[in-house]
Amino acid sequence: MVEILTTPHDARSWSRSRRSTGHSVGFVPTMGALHDGHATLVRRSISENRTTVVSIFVNPTQFDRGTDFTTYPRTEHDDIALCESLGVDAIYMPSVDVVYPAGSTTTVDPGPLAGVLEGAARPGHFAGVATVVVKLLTTCEPDTAYFGEKDLQQLAVVRRIVSDLDLPVSVVGVPTVREPDGLAMSSRNRRLSDDDRRAATCVARALFTVRDLVDAGERDAHVLRATMLSVLATEPRCRVDYAEIVDRTSFASVDTLEGDVSACVAAFFGDVRLIDNTSLSPL
Ligand code: AMP
Asked: What is the pTM assigned to this prediction?
């Protein structure tokens, strides 16, 4: 039976009691509306740890658009059932008031990474992410925490803060899980209309097209970017937020393919904003 924990005190006690008996604790932070991408992170944690805790918390401070927060899918009942069926040991699902009690003002500033690409498109987003991740890690005290490469810049921000703040946790990145037609799984996909769901495959198509071009020898990032935009432009329902070829450390746009480089796309379909990326050099 999965244990439901709702306060930092209970989550910390749970984790400490497991660790005191020599059990490793794996941790998968989520915002719920769980899908097979989340399940893949959970399975990985279960395979590598004696115990696994999943957090489900829709973090208001990382939303830059109020309607995105209020319309974010919430499927608590199904999420608990899925965690239970996967063999999760505990779920930490605190309320907003528990995570941010009245009067709390401290935030974590992850530095320059927070101001580029996804951070530039969503002001304040990564400060919200960094703050909640630090709170969750210091509450659940895992040995290892699992994050998806789907949110590539988030993974980089998490690695940055764990290193900069000497947090005693290993961070594992897990490859993106996709639908059969290539669309990256996302909780927000549930909010797509049927037409937008069909149209949204252009994002993965744009990414895979440039990956093929790179495999065929193309090294000019401007050519690759123009190619992504032309693929995205074939779909009139797609409104591009950005389509960039970036360095995987700084997330700054590059001119040529040197070092660790990824293609990253953010695009709106109706009012639903999706992000996706692919590596153009080994991860
Ligand atoms: P979220 O609930 O969207 O905040 O995601 C929770 C975790 O699951 C994050 O580390 C995400 O990067 C990861 N994740 C979300 N979608 C996918 C996916 N399609 N494949 C792999 N990991 C994912």
From this structure: 0.97
